[in-house]
Amino acid sequence: ALCWKLPICFLFYQVVSGRAGLEGHYVAAVYEHESILSPSPAALVERRSALELMGRNLDVYEQQVLAAARQGAQIIVFPEDGIHGFNFTRSSIYPYLDFVPHSHSGKWNPCREPYLFNDTEVVQRLSCMALKNKIFLVANLGTKQPCERTDPRCPADGRYQFNTNVAFAADGTLLATYRKHNLYFEYAFDTPPQPDYAFFDTPFAGKFGMFTCFDILFFEPAVNLIRQYNL
Ligand SMILES: *[C@@H]1O[C@H](CO)[C@@H](O)[C@H](O)[C@H]1NC(C)=O
Ligand SMILES: *[C@@H]1O[C@H](CO)[C@@H](O)[C@H](O)[C@H]1NC(C)=O
User: Fold this and answer.
1) Does the beta carbon of 7 sit less than 6 angstroms from any atom of ligand 1?
2) Separation of 144 CA from ligand 2 center, angstroms?
3) Of 80, 85, 188, 217, which has the fewest Cβ atoms less than 10 A away?
4) Does the annotation mark 34 as catalytic?
5) In a domain, 225, yes or no
6) Which residues span the domain enclosing 159?
7) What confidence tens digit (pLDDT) does each residue in 201-227 have?
8) Cβ-based neighbour number of residue 66 at 10 Å
9) Structural domain contains residue 31
């Protein structure tokens, strides 16, 4: 039952470093968002209407980031599927997917550099929330990654679709992405070819590792995240 109630299934993340702030503590906010859901998730819609629906959830996120920052939170974490919802098919979720570069090829600040990639409206808004409120922010969204026919694992529709966490620094920079490895009957999404070991550093509490929900029951990526990366 852990993951069946998706609206309350948070991104599981842990402080896996022993370091803490000078005062030995930090303030984290976790917002349990009741998503505004598409009334017909199996229907094919335009990107524009997908963005409109996600924008209503992001409006709530924006208020909560502001409220958390005002109360001194240094990091805020949002739940799995909180922006797009669930019960999609592989094709019906497509308009809800942002493009997020996965390779760690340089730093990207989506709020400051929105023009670098197409279909990044959701990550831009999240990045701007972090930047405006000077707070680290972790959220979950659907992402797409085009692939070539020469890649034997490339799905027939020419793209990977991932259940992805994104972490932003307090200046809006994208620090880390994590693609869920152990999907829970999520037929709209693909399992990444290799497990992601995703973590990011903070000035107030050292390193945070990321994995999502059902992942907590499995060896990969959680155990190796700690063993191999010695967090
Ligand atoms: C999602 O699908 C499940 C299983 O088919 C169904 O029980 C549930 O009511 C659906 N939820 C929404 C919000 O459509
Ligand atoms: C974005 O899409 C437009 C229209 O398809 C294209 O002309 C443009 O080159 C793309 N920009 C980037 C950064 O990929």
Assistant:
1) no
2) 15
3) 217
4) no
5) yes
6) 25-229
7) 999 999 999 999 999 999 999 999 999
8) 14
9) yes
